[in-house]
Design brief:
The protein is α+β, with helices and mostly antiparallel strands and 87 residues long. It has one domain. It is 40% helix and 25% strand. It contains 3 helices and 5 strands; from the N terminus they run H-E-E-E-H-E-E-H. A hairpin with a 2-residue loop joins strand 2 and strand 3. The protein is globular, with a radius of gyration of 13 Å. The N and C termini lie far apart (43 Å).
Length: 87
């Protein structure tokens, strides 16, 4: 079985992580996606940062999201802290 198929099967069987909160920003996992939810529209510089780390706006989910991986979670935590101004 190709490696990509194994990874997607493993991700589908692994339970999603618990939501995390950084300031008013919520980081959660749903449908094999890491999602960042903000109380309002993020600033231009915040949106540029999100895009630079592979996050894309999903109007359906109402959140910035990308495929769920350990690196995506690390990036989400880093971005949430940076955007919220939390050290």
């Amino acid at each position: 079985m190709p490696r990509a198929h194994r990874r997607s099967r493993e991700a589908a069987t692994r339970p999603p992580r618990e939501p995390e909160h950084v300031g008013e920003i919520t980081i959660e996992e749903e449908n094999n996606r890491v999602r960042l939810t903000f109380p309002g529209k993020p600033r231009d510089d915040a949106r540029t940062l999100l895009k630079s780390r592979g996050f894309r706006w999903s109007p359906t989910a109402g959140a910035w999201q990308r495929q769920a991986t350990p690196v995506a979670w690390d990036d989400a935590r880093y971005l949430a802290k940076k955007i919220a101004g939390v050290p």
